[in-house]
Design goal:
Distance between the termini: 16 Å
Number of helices: 11
Structural class: alpha/beta
Largest sheet: 7 strands, mixed
Order of helices and strands: EEEHEEEHEEEHHEHEHEHEHEHEHEHE
Bound molecules: NADP nicotinamide-adenine-dinucleotide phosphate, zinc ion
Oligomer: single chain
Number of strands: 17
Helix content: 10-25%
């Protein structure tokens, strides 16, 4: 009997529809989680629409999972029934390569097992959080601080860590000027976290429509990328700019806003190759880099940081039956700032 209710894309580009399947019974080291909420990340849209290729269908998306422990295997040490927990973008990795040993399982050189559209170590497809339960090895489960609401905490599992990790790696903090390009799901978490780290935060948005929100979220400055004056006025100022835009944008324009030794870091996935001029990099020892989510230890550090600073995502909760509409609204930029599915509506 299939034991898990879900919504899945039956084929590439097809609308999501009800789907059921079996989760494994919890093994010795497994935690069984009743999923309460799951965030809708732009990646779920790229993936279900097969914009990156190699999609696996039926696909149950969802990697911003928040829920409650319902059972634990006999050897589980870190969690007990009733704990508030999260699952992010991956559920396993080789555990022995250099990256895994450093706690950077997201860069596992053997192969990270992603939460969906991936294969587990037994070769079974993984299914994500647009579902009512999940079973995950305790080493890949995160603890959600008790003061954070489960719905607002769900997006921390991807959007939160995807910004926390580069902000920390490239030294966001007091005395540092940080720019965030795109005020969406990832971007709004970047503003909150960079502000809490003590950096001076600037938002680069396509227009000034979200300016008031940006300031409320913690931005010190807000500029429209549609205004050429932005790129004149801010030349050479930033230590770090994180680009969350899910499309190809003008990287050269932002490189010119970096100070000497500044870094432009991609987290948004462009839909096309982007031209980049060498000279502005060479002339000021600037870097262009990328970053993907974060490891388990760093994700837990991010959750504890967010607990301490009372940071959760700004969300709109939707029933799972509205997921296709929510996808359309994300693509149109009509969400402030993350849709979260109420997984109780799968009943
Ligand atoms: P989102 O909620 O749709 O936000 C993206 C924001 O980018 C929009 O709110 C908009 O902000 C801006 N934008 C959208 N289209 C644009 C365009 N054509 N040109 C310029 N700006 C545009 O998406 P998200 O969930 O934050 O995800 C963003 C990207 O990050 C996706 O590509 C996703 O796959 C990727 N991602 C990467 C990682 C990682 O580990 N690296 C993790 C999660 C997601 P304004 O209205 O303010 O301009
Ligand atoms: Zn994501
Ligand atoms: Zn590994």
């Amino acid at each position: 009997m299939p034991n898990t209710k879900a919504f899945a894309a039956p084929a590439a580009k097809a609308p999501l529809a009800p789907f059921s399947f079996d989760r494994r019974a919890p093994g010795d080291h497994d935690v069984a989680i009743g999923i309460r909420f799951c965030g809708i990340c732009h990646t779920d849209i790229h993936q279900t629409r097969d914009e990156w290729g190699e999609g696996m269908y039926p696909m149950v998306p969802g990697h911003e999972i928040a829920g409650v422990v319902t059972a634990v295997g006999p050897k589980v040490k870190k969690f007990k029934v009733g704990d508030h927990v999260g699952v992010g973008c991956f559920v396993d990795s080789c555990r022995t390569c250099t990256e895994c040993k450093k706690g950077e399982e997201q860069y596992c050189s053997v192969g990270t097992v992603f939460t969906y559209a991936s294969k587990d170590k037994e070769g079974r497809p993984t299914y994500g959080g647009y579902s009512d339960k999940i079973v995950v090895d305790e080493n890949y489960v995160l603890r959600i601080p008790d003061n954070l609401p489960l719905d607002g905490a769900a997006p921390l599992m991807c959007a939160g860590i995807t910004l926390f990790s580069p902000l920390k790696h490239w030294g966001a903090g007091p005395g540092r000027k940080v720019g965030i390009i795109g005020l969406g799901g990832l971007g709004h978490m970047g503003v909150k976290i960079a502000h809490a780290m003590g950096a001076e935060v600037t938002v680069f948005s396509q227009s000034l429509k979200k300016q008031e929100d940006g300031k409320r979220l913690g931005a010190d400055h807000f500029y429209a990328t549609s205004d050429p004056e932005t790129f004149e006025k801010l030349k050479g100022q930033f230590d770090l700019i994180v680009n969350t835009v899910p499309a190809a944008n003008n990287w050269d324009q932002f490189v010119n806003l970096l100070a000497t030794d500044g870094s432009l870091v991609m987290v948004g996935v462009p839909d096309d190759a982007v031209p980049l001029n060498g000279f502005p990099l060479i002339a000021k020892r600037r870097s262009v880099a990328g970053s993907m989510i974060g490891g388990i230890a760093e994700t837990q550090e991010m959750l504890d940081f967010c607990g301490k600073h009372n940071i959760a995502s700004d969300i709109e909760v939707v029933p799972v039956q509205k997921v296709n509409e929510a996808f359309e609204r994300v693509v149109r930029g009509d969400v402030r700032y993350r849709f979260v599915i109420d997984c109780a509506t799968l009943e």
